[in-house]
Design brief:
Largest sheet: 5 strands, parallel
Structural class: alpha/beta
CATH class: Alpha Beta
Number of helices: 4
CATH topology: Rossmann fold
Strand order of the largest sheet: 2-1-3-4-5
Distance between the termini: 32 Å
Helix content: 25-40%
């Protein structure tokens, strides 16, 4: 089993364990910023990459947003490209060995722009095996370098307080 498949399965188990895991609530903190990017880049479609259960999309996004999350059955189908791809509290859940692949995938799906919110601290949540849900903890400079390399059209914010 590859790193990708292993971590998707660990996330799938948490999804199944509780309706309170990975609800997509972190997007709420960034709605104002995302709305300004929608306006600035004239985005008509949105993809929430790693959306979890996507329970917190603002009503004004409905009809123009799609979700993608390989660990949640409702959203595990390959998404269509969108003008704006948002990725909130997701990248730190991706094993470092898969960061390039995921960022390349996101970049290929983004017609105009991307928005990332990345946590730089350990999570409170743990997988069934006891390991921390945030598997790639790096400093802001490291993340900025990865985004510049693999996903250059982006806005980045860091989430360090839960």
């Amino acid at each position: 089993m590859s790193d990708r498949e292993h971590y998707i399965e660990l996330h799938r188990q948490l999804h199944q364990q509780s309706s309170l895991h990975f609800t997509g609530k972190s997007v709420r903190k960034y709605v104002e910023t995302i709305n300004s990017l929608i306006t600035k880049h004239q985005c008509e479609t949105i993809l929430d990459y790693g959306c979890g259960k996507a329970q917190f999309w603002p009503t004004e996004w409905l009809g123009k947003i799609q979700g993608y999350d390989p660990a949640y059955e409702k959203f595990n189908i390959e998404p269509a490209p969108a003008d704006l791809v948002i990725c909130c509290d997701v990248m730190e859940h991706i094993p470092e060995s898969e960061i390039e692949n995921v960022l390349t995938h996101i970049n290929a799906l983004a017609n105009k722009w991307t928005f990332f919110a990345i946590d730089t601290k350990r999570a409170k949540k743990r997988f069934a095996d006891g390991s921390n849900c945030h598997v790639t903890i790096q400093n802001p400079e490291w993340w900025q370098e990865q985004l510049n390399k693999y996903c250059p059209r982006h806005t980045l914010q860091f989430e360090t307080i839960k």
